[in-house]
Design brief:
Low-confidence stretches: 228-240
Structural class: alpha/beta
Strand order of the largest sheet: 3-2-4-1-5-6-7
CATH class: Alpha Beta
Helix content: 40-55%
Distance between the termini: 34 Å
CATH superfamily: P-loop containing nucleotide triphosphate hydrolases
Largest sheet: 7 strands, parallel
Shape: globular
Bound molecules: adenosine-5'-diphosphate, magnesium ion
Number of strands: 7
CATH topology: Rossmann fold
């Protein structure tokens, strides 16, 4: 199993957005079974998953329902181990906008760290904050420029600035309403608007990330192949308790 951690100290950079959309896309392209861990106490990823009808990608609960104790060091590592043993091929870890021990652990578990950065003047000014956490990351890391506007020279500036400190993903994610709408409905942009530009961008970003994961695993580079344009890959391995919990919650609502 390979683990992708999405981290950036700045809130609103797009960590949760990128985590859920890439997880959906990875599953859709057959890279699954895909699991997700929400290491942010705000539970943005978990809430999205709870409002989702499909059961894949699977969110592995780190806590029983209603248990609000903060995560302790070692719990993420134990969860990653369990998922690996259960046969998951990919695990996404979404993190909080901070630089505490849990984010550090999530980064330490990663085969690849994705660092989303908003293409905004504010974020460009505060970029040293993002870099401070990232400079210490030993795993391969990739910046993802998010929230870009179509004609902005700012996007280019942000990418050039970031490229002084690491690899920048070839695919930029532009600002689009469907990212917000799909979040409310528990969907990925590719499920809500399969032929839209955001869906294409997420597909491109996943293809790029999959290439980086191959490199991280010491495998030779492989030219991307055409992705199957359909959904509905069924998981053979399910975390039984979780599945039952989700059904119970659905019945209750
Ligand atoms: N490319 C985008 N276009 C439009 N809205 C976006 C985009 N990326 C993120 N958002 C929105 O911006 C807000 C913050 O994104 P989120 O993923 O929650 O950031 P983080 O997890 O880094 O705090 C959310 O409302 C999300 O829907
Ligand atoms: Mg978040």
């Amino acid at each position: 199993m390979q683990t992708i951690t999405i981290a950036c100290r700045k809130g609103g950079a797009g960590k949760t957005t990128i985590a859920r959309n890439l997880a959906v896309e990875a599953e859709r392209q057959g890279a699954g079974p895909v699991a997700m861990l929400d290491a942010d106490a705000m539970r943005g990823l978990a809430q999205w998953w709870e409002s989702r009808k499909a059961e894949v990608p699977m969110l592995a609960a780190l806590r029983q329902l209603g248990d609000k104790r903060p995560l302790q060091r070692g719990e993420l590592a134990a969860a990653v181990q369990k998922l690996q043993a259960a046969g998951y091929r990919l695990c996404f870890i979404d993190t909080a906008p901070e630089a505490g021990p849990i984010v550090e652990e999530a980064i330490g578990l990663a085969d690849l760290v994705l660092v989303p950065v908003n293409a905004s003047p504010d974020d460009l000014r505060a970029i040293h904050e993002t870099l401070a956490i990232v400079e210490t990351v030993k795993a391969p890391k990739v910046f993802v420029v998010n929230h870009a506007t179509r004609r902005a020279t700012l996007t280019g500036l942000v990418a050039v600035k970031l490229s002084q400190h690491g690899t920048v993903a070839e695919t930029t994610i532009h600002r689009a309403e469907v990212f917000k709408q799909s979040a409310i409905e528990g969907l990925g942009v590719q499920e809500m608007e399969p032929s839209g530009v955001p869906a294409q961008e997420i597909e491109g970003l996943w293809t790029y990330v999959a290439g980086r994961l191959r490199l991280a695993a010491g495998l030779p580079y492989e030219a991307p192949t055409e992705a199957p344009r359909k959904r509905g890959i069924e998981l053979t391995i399910q975390v039984g308790e979780q599945r039952a919990a989700k059904k119970t919650r659905k019945r209750a609502s």
